[in-house]
């Protein structure tokens, strides 16, 4: 069994963040270790509060996991502030050369709530140089002001086409571009799809799949999870991770 380390925030409604990451890893048959960066009070309608963990607690979590497990891939999500990013950077400087790193540069929730402090933006952008691949959506790419002629890592830009299909575009550092398409299902807005997608890619890389194959499998997983998604009181559905892997 492959070991995936998730560094991310917690989502109280369980559809995104750390909870979605754990469900995704289990669906792919991987073991999931977690280093929590922040606790959020949220649901699909919004975020009412964020409490970041102390940097020394994040550092301690990473050290304890390192002592126990041989990590096969890392997925990084919500980091929230510059102090936490610095802890992760120090850790990545030591491990990034030997394990795949997937960074989902979480900046803003779908509800519009900020999940990254303004003064941490440059630190997050600097972190991308350690990534095997980063998975921003269009809004996050704009916030990060990514230069696609001089990328810090391979970039999978999510939701570049939402006409009759759901298309993501992989921009390699060498300039090559590859498109990935799946059926566009209703509703278009899902809670936790981005978190789950990046975790699914991390699982694929841990399982020794090639990058493009990992992305294809992750897109199919998300499509199936949306197809069988759960209804909520606010109309935004929650992914059914148990169904994602089986169709």
From TrEMBL:
Chain ranges of the Pyridoxamine kinase/Phosphomethylpyrimidine kinase domain: 11-235
Enzyme class: transferase
Pathway assignment: Cofactor biosynthesis; thiamine diphosphate biosynthesis
UniProt GO molecular function: hydroxymethylpyrimidine kinase activity
UniProt-listed SUPFAM superfamilies: Ribokinase-like
Domain of life of the native organism: Bacteria
Record has Transferase as a keyword: yes
Keywords carried by this UniProt record: Kinase, Transferase
Enzyme Commission number: 2.7.1.49
Matching PANTHER family: HYDROXYMETHYLPYRIMIDINE_PHOSPHOMETHYLPYRIMIDINE KINASE THI20-RELATED, PHOSPHOMETHYLPYRIMIDINE KINASE
Protein name per its UniProtKB record: hydroxymethylpyrimidine kinase
Designated gene of the protein: thiD_1
